[in-house]
Specification:
InterPro entries: DUF4031. By secondary structure, this protein is of the alpha+beta class. The protein has eight helices and eleven strands. The longest helix has 10 residues. It is elongated.
Length: about 200
């Protein structure tokens, strides 16, 4: 079943409506409460209790501003290029970027983004949907925690070297990670959870 989302007052899905109906039934919503003729098919969550049940059953809470953007395919995007295999295996939960400060501060905890295998302007495809679990933070590379060896996808790619692009000579060993960590400077750190992997 595709992922279910809620902004506390609506219940939606990016997938098949059968999955939405099954989820709604599982939390006690009646089929006749389905709103299928408006701007987007959804169930109304008319009480805080219904909203809480939806979240307890696995619906992802999103910002109301993201709901229409999600359904219209207009979320902002972020690309993962050579770490895409780690992302698709759900073995990536952080990325570091050389973003301008003004751009980085557009994003906030809870925001949804489309994940791409490469930049959309270069023909990239949507491969997933992520949700930020914290505001982006500007951090020194030297402060990168050991756990980010795995969270950045390095460990997965080290264990699956055949998934790395042959044209890119990237050292994803622990030593390579440490060399990157000690390369100096600071980057914007974006921590996220993967909401769903899209069919590609």
């Amino acid at each position: 079943m595709n992922q279910i989302y809620t902004d506390r007052t609506h219940l939606i899905t990016t997938g098949h409506l059968e999955g939405l109906h099954a989820f709604a039934q599982s939390i006690g919503l009646k089929r006749e409460w389905f709103q299928g003729k408006g701007r987007f098919p959804h169930y109304d969550l008319t009480t805080p209790r219904a909203s809480a049940r939806a979240q307890q059953a696995g619906a992802i809470l999103i910002n109301p501003k993201d709901l229409i953007k999600l359904l219209n395919g207009r979320l902002p995007g972020i690309s993962f290029t050579w770490t895409t295999p780690a992302f698709l295996s759900k073995q990536k939960s952080v990325t570091r970027r050389d973003w301008p400060e003004e751009y980085a501060k557009r994003f906030k905890e809870g925001d949804l983004l489309f994940a791409y295998d490469k930049q959309a302007r270069f023909g990239g495809s949507k491969i997933g949907i992520i949700q930020l679990i914290a505001d982006p933070s500007f951090e020194s590379m030297s402060k990168m925690p050991d756990g980010d060896y795995e969270a950045e996808g390095f460990k997965y790619l080290y264990e699956n070297p055949h998934l790395l692009p042959r044209s890119m000579k990237i050292d994803v060993s622990w030593e390579g990670f440490n060399a990157w960590r000690n390369s100096g400077g600071s980057k914007w750190v974006i921590r996220f959870r993967i909401c769903e992997i899209l069919n590609i």
